[in-house]
Amino acid sequence: MAVTLENRVCRTLKASWQEIDEETVLLVAAEEKLLGLNAVAGRIWQLADGTRSVEAIARALDTEFEAAGSDLRQDTLGFVNRLVALGLMEASNP
């Protein structure tokens, strides 16, 4: 399923996460992999709690990060689609 701006997204239980020194770190235990997320990607991860659409997450990022850029919605959508493909997030209809 390709995620759209209207879809709500939620973290799955495939990864545990923690904030370490202002960085979001994901532990994908089944793959014995650690993933470090930059500030924007970490905030997307935090906001993906199943209550917000990708569009709402992008709007929140636009407010929180001054130099997010004009491609913020598409960048957010691309990142979410990658995490969905990895099984770290799932999308639901609005």
Radius of gyration: 13 Å
Spatially, the strands of the biggest sheet line up as 5-1-6
Average pLDDT figure: 90
Q: Give the DSSP E fraction (strand runs of 2 or more residues).
A: 25-35%
- Number of strand elements: 6
What is the tally of helical segments?
3
What's the story with the biggest beta sheet? 3 strands, antiparallel
The CATH topology is what?
Outer Surface Protein A, domain 3
**Share of helical residues:** 25-40%
Classified by CATH, the class is Alpha Beta
The global form is: globular
CATH architecture: Alpha-Beta Complex
Give the helix/strand class.
alpha+beta
Spell the H/E element sequence. Answer: EEEEHEHHE
Number of domains: 1
Detail the poorly predicted runs. Answer: none
Question: What's the N-to-C terminus distance?
Answer: 14 Å
